[in-house]
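lol so apparently i was supposed to do this last week
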Amino acid sequence: MKPKVVYKPISSPEGIEDHVVYMGRLQNNARRYYQCALVIAILVTVLFCLMAAQLLLFPLLCTSSTEKSVSPDNSCSDPCSLVLVESIPEGLEYSSNATINPSVYQSWKRLLSQAQSSVDIASFYWTLTNKDTHTNHSSASQGEEILQEMMKLKQRGVRLRVAVNPSGSKAKDADIDALRDSGAEVRVVNLPHLTSGVLHTKFWVVDGKHIYIGSANMDWRSLTQVKELGTAVYNCTCLAQDLGKIFDAYWVLGQDNATIPSPWPDTFSTTYNKETPLEVSLNSTASLVYLSSSPPPLTAKGRTDDIDSILSVIDDAKKFVYISVMDYTPTEEFSKPRRYWPAIDNHLRKAVYERHVTVRLLISCWGNTKPNMFPFLQSLAALQSNKSHYDIEVKIFVVPASEEQKHIPFARVNHNKYMVTDRVAYIGTSNWAGDYFIRTAGSAIVVNQTGTANATNSLQKQLEAVFLRDWTSDYSHSFHSLTSYKEKCIF
Ligand SMILES: *[C@@H]1O[C@H](CO)[C@@H](O)[C@H](O)[C@H]1NC(C)=O
Ligand SMILES: *[C@@H]1O[C@H](CO)[C@@H](O)[C@H](O)[C@H]1NC(C)=O
Ligand SMILES: *[C@@H]1O[C@H](CO)[C@@H](O)[C@H](O)[C@H]1NC(C)=O
Ligand SMILES: *[C@@H]1O[C@H](CO)[C@@H](O)[C@H](O)[C@H]1NC(C)=O
Ligand SMILES: *[C@@H]1O[C@H](CO)[C@@H](O)[C@H](O)[C@H]1NC(C)=O
Ligand SMILES: *[C@@H]1O[C@H](CO)[C@@H](O)[C@H](O)[C@H]1NC(C)=O
Ligand SMILES: *[C@@H]1O[C@H](CO)[C@@H](O)[C@H](O)[C@H]1NC(C)=O
Ligand SMILES: *[C@@H]1O[C@H](CO)[C@@H](O)[C@H](O)[C@H]1NC(C)=O
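anyway here it is w/ 2-acetamido-2-deoxy-beta-D-glucopyranose bound
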């Protein structure tokens, strides 16, 4: 079918030629325009050279431009060691040679056992026990064990601080109450009131030295029934203290009647960001690292907003962008009236169209998936065709569930929130919809080891292997085959 788009008639008959003539006319106009522009450019250059010469001859006259742009010394000699960790839901099986990483549960146990002075946890909600979920499932034991370990911290002389979003109901506060009783300090951060979002961040800072950050909630299901991905970094004071600043912001906002400071005091500022990342060795590999944060009202001076880190990682990709997130939609999921929010979509399309980057999106489907996500994904996937040479593909990951597992509420889903390109690894805590970057609190770690040619076991390589393992697994369904997503997803 010929396109119905009608350009201003020029001289020839209507139809497809019209388009060609129109383009020809445009090019002629452009030529004239460029000749003109060239003359102006030469004039401007001459003027500029004159001014520059004057400044060189009389530098003292030029007082206002002497402000120095001293770049901060962002190098750090900590012997950081980074471990990629995952929760693989019970019953989800890969081929025997597949990449298997240490578990989130192991990393939490290890962090708790190493803690000597402090554990700070930023969290959305707490349901670490069967009691919380009104279930009686043996796989809750890992979560219950974690809660028990936390309740022993005070005895060991370790200060536990928890920042948590309001639960909205006293009945849902059992874990929080138990922690308080054990001596933990808990602050409820009323983000719904402060920004109309939620505190959705999930990270730990231990002894100001070790961190965990990733998709897992403080929920027993996040250890055995939901597919999660995160990272633990040990012996890394410079990074841990920077994450500590984000925690401190939540902590301040958890005080009674708190308001959001504007601007945030300097103690919350950072010099580690996408322009000047921390230079540190991770597993003896030279790396550039920074932590991003959302929403903008909570980001102090120097901190990169989470959405800006995502866009810059996409823009930086030369060969591929692999994305694994539970929800992806170029809208604000929860706004009324509805709002379109194409920031990420635009950068993905641009990468495909302008740079021929291969884009793969692995999105989740489960009982709580909003159906209106699919037309937008379909629209991205529609760029791909045998003729177009635009390489973009969407697959839907469905976590299998036995009859028994189907009865576990809010489980059996791929909850991952990461992206890996041919150059950089990004591990976050937000779903990819507008609200998460505009109103909701989240954060992410960005690891760039492209400068190290030989990083054979870089985080980027490990994350790429994880993505390809999932992408090629039987749990990933080609988007085109998904005529009725309800049939494919487990409800
Ligand atoms: C794992 O084994 C399968 C079949 O045996 C093979 O196709 C695949 O390439 C292997 N994957 C890796 C990561 O070695
Ligand atoms: C939980 O299940 C076990 C067996 O699986 C049973 O012995 C126990 O009584 C159950 N507890 C509750 C509270 O239902
Ligand atoms: C952290 O450093 C300590 C002391 O040097 C060492 O004993 C420990 O093994 C390190 N931890 C990791 C995970 O590398
Ligand atoms: C917070 O506001 C309430 C109501 O205005 C007031 O009663 C209370 O004293 C305030 N608390 C603090 C710590 O300022
Ligand atoms: C694209 O090409 C492949 C292999 O040549 C073929 O199997 C597929 O059906 C084609 N797809 C479309 C949409 O034409
Ligand atoms: C990664 O580091 C290189 C320098 O090694 C830099 O040019 C590039 O912009 C960085 N990428 C991102 C996404 O920050
Ligand atoms: C990089 O890898 C090559 C081949 O594995 C090795 O010969 C070389 O020494 C390595 N260089 C560095 C700086 O590690
Ligand atoms: C870093 O070292 C730890 C401990 O040796 C290992 O488990 C982990 O996989 C390594 N991480 C990377 C990114 O190579």
